[in-house]
Amino acid sequence: MFGRYRYDLALGSMMIVALAAGCTPKDDGQSSSTLVVTDGGSDDGDPTGDGDPTGDGDGDPTGDGDPDGDGCTDALDILLVIDNSGSMGTIQRRLVLALPGLVNLLDGAGLDWRIGVTTTDNGNQWCPAGQTTPEGGKLVMSSCRTRLNDFLFGDEVDVRDSLCNDLCPNGIFEIVPTVTEVDEVAAPRPWIERIDGQTNVSGLDVADALRCAVPMGVNGCGFESQLESSYLALARAQLNTEASYGFLRSDASLLVLILSDEIDCSYNKNYSTIFSAEGNKAFWSDPSSPYPTSALCWNAGVMCMGPGSGYVTCDPQNYDVDGNPTGNPDDAVLHPISRYINDLDQLRQQREQINPGARVRFAVIGGARLDGTVHYADSPDPGFQNSFGIGPGCEDPNSPEVLAVPPVRMRQVALQSDGSLGSICAPDYSPFLADLVESFVAECG
Questions:
Q1: Ramachandran region of residue 227, left (φ > 0), alpha (ψ -120 to 50) or beta?
Q2: Which of 50, 85, 100, 251 has the lowest CB atom count within 10 Å?
Q3: Which residues of 377-413 are buried (b: 16+ CB within 10 A; e: fewer)?
Q4: HSE (CB half, 13 Å, CA atoms) of 190?
Q5: How far is 277 from 409, CA to CA, in rounded Å?
Q6: Average of pLDDT values for 281-288?
């Protein structure tokens, strides 16, 4: 919601528009089937139901004495999780402009690849369905020109041209029916791919189709659930009732890439009262306010040490509904990050058993400095501090609408999942994307 903060420093006006902007749901042309996996209650990190949520092996499933694998990958599945809240217009545009270069890198490396896209919108009581676009991890695959209302945020933000029309001048493409390793009946799939030199796109070059498909708009919920949305997208891809079933190839490497200027707010739906005006407001920056701010998400998931002028460290922390630190994951109001780390580790082990060269990596383009380091300090601006619970982690002096709070939970998942952290304030994301591709093919001869 940083864009709104820049447009209007009056906090009350900002929050009312951000949380109640009238928007229409996405029409992604895909099934609206309901996900069977629960996202509340026990945190067992086992969406596939194979009884091994944590991976209790010795870290060397291939038995070759090399827990990191000993080959190189020739297939890569990429899941993009894109923040579609009101401040993301310029940021999404930077990603989209880097996509042709990404395709060239993937093709040049000889990778069979596929790319699926979802948003950070997993719903919230302040963001009712029909006003925002709660994908809940469902892949979106349609031209942005078919969902232009998604590129409007309140009365002041209109990025229909800069984020869609200008990037997608030709507009329409079709997804050619294909088979998957779990479905021998050809059907249109909610992703774009190039496998064995063949794409599943008709009507546009594959890079142009991505420029049309990847923009997610700016009318999504301002309480972003980046980690939970990625978790649900991966879970959906393993359920035969979902349109995205088969997106994950059993022998392919996997990259989960999150693009967001906010902190993670992946809350346990059993504790949705933390957002309620009738609740105890334990995590609200201003309990006298009629509505919560994004600071709730910071307060509910982070513990910092040191002076607020420059914290020594800020780390993930589980809190119960009363605001007390808890060692019981079932009592944590935000899903513990172990939920996501364990899930990625399980996917890695499954792939390495089939292909020792397979990798699973988690990357974030977020509120880091240009060199990838993170700075945590309270904001000297009381309004910003009240809104987000922390000061900016980075700002782009050439584009004042581009700023981001420093990630904590997402950064920790990346650190523990062979991943990396890039700066959302960088003017060009191409170098970061190039490093990501290189990390998958560096061992290839």
A1: alpha
A2: 50
A3: bbbeeeebbbbbbbbbbbbbeeeebbbbbbbbbbbbb
A4: 23
A5: 26
A6: 97
* pLDDT for position 15: 40
Provide mean pLDDT across the span 211-239: 97
**For the chain, what is the mean pLDDT?**
86
Is the pLDDT at 128 greater than 60? The verdict is yes
Angle between helices 430-441 and 89-108 (to 10 degrees): 30
Q: For residue 307, give every residue at least 6 positions away whose Cβ sits within 8 Å of its Cβ, in sequence order, or none.
A: none
> Domains of the chain, with CATH numbers?
2-22+71-271+336-373+398-441 (3.40.50.410)
pLDDT at residue 392 is higher than 90: yes
Q: pLDDT tens across 22-70, in order? A: 333 343 433 333 333 333 333 333 333 333 333 333 333 333 333 344 4
Question: In which band, very low, low, confident or very high, does the pLDDT at 72 lie, cut at 50, 70 and 90?
Answer: confident
- How far, CA to CA in Å, does 330 sit from each of 81, 224, 271? 26, 21, 10
Distance of alpha carbon 159 from its chain centroid, rounded? 20
For residue 328, the tally of other CB atoms under 10 A from its CB is 10
CA distances from 201 to 117, 182, 212 (A): 15, 20, 12
